[in-house]
Specification:
It is built from nine helices and ten strands. It has 244 residues and is α/β, with parallel strands linked by helices. The structure holds fe (ii) ion.
């Protein structure tokens, strides 16, 4: 069983299109998407349209959950906006515009997504989460102590936990036998090279797990310019995050 796992697309059409070309060559049986479709990119409606197409094409073999920023965009209030502008100005001002430019049907779609899902493939119990099993916004970063990660996933009874959120890929094989893989970010990767990242996962008929993070080239300069052209306050700070 071959599965492509994507996360944190963040309305980056260019990165998403390149990743989908690579996924096409992988020819997966299933696609999982771990949330954060919209906030702080340049083409939220295009990404949601493509997600709807994947849902249609893959049917029950497509799984999607909600990310923390999907929740922010689809439940945005004046208070949330003001707090976001104070805490992380470029994200707050982007959020203000994202709410206005995203079609209502897509806002409604991400609002209703579940925060997590569990499923079983070839005897392997899998949990899909955005941050961690206990918190949609918790960071499973690289180079944490194994005991720290063990604590974060202690309430999950899955064999394999797939997460995103930090925009940095990593993986852990824990003493409890659980495996945790952060799939990285397709649309706003925080790796040094800023390439788009996703996970190719294979689970054979014996339940053996093989995984590979793929780093995909895209036109970061072009995307950075798209962000600048949105012309909201502090957009230059956001635009600079795409450049290695
Ligand atoms: Fe994200």
């Amino acid at each position: 069983m071959k599965i492509a796992v994507i996360s944190d697309i963040h309305a980056n059409k260019d990165a998403f299109d390149r990743v989908m070309e690579d996924i096409k060559m992988f020819n997966p049986d299933k696609i999982f998407c771990l949330g954060d479709l919209i906030l702080a990119g340049y083409n939220p409606n295009y990404i949601c349209e493509k997600i709807f197409e994947l849902k249609e094409k893959f049917g029950e073999n497509f799984e999607i959950i909600q990310g923390n920023t999907d929740k922010m965009v689809s439940n945005c209030s004046e208070e949330l906006l003001e707090n976001a502008k104070k805490a992380f100005p470029c994200m707050g001002y982007s959020l203000e515009q994202d709410v206005k430019i995203t079609d209502k049907k897509y806002l409604d779609f991400v609002k209703e997504l579940p925060e997590k899902k569990t499923l079983e493939i070839n005897g392997i119990k899998i949990e899909l989460v955005h941050g961690s099993p206990r918190n949609q916004s918790e960071n499973i970063f690289p180079e944490l102590l194994n005991d720290t990660v063990e604590e974060m996933v202690k309430d999950s009874n899955a064999d394999l936990i797939l997460c995103g959120h930090t925009h940095i890929p990593c993986g852990y094989s824990l003493n409890s036998g659980k495996m945790v893989i952060n799939v990285g970010s397709t649309g706003r990767s925080m790796t040094q090279d800023k390439k788009a990242v996703y996970l190719q996962l294979t689970i054979d008929s014996q339940g053996k797990i093989f995984s590979e993070h793929r780093s995909i080239d895209y036109d970061n300069e072009k995307v950075s310019k798209h962000i600048l052209s949105r012309n909201f306050k502090h957009c230059e700070e956001l635009a600079s995050m795409y450049i290695a």
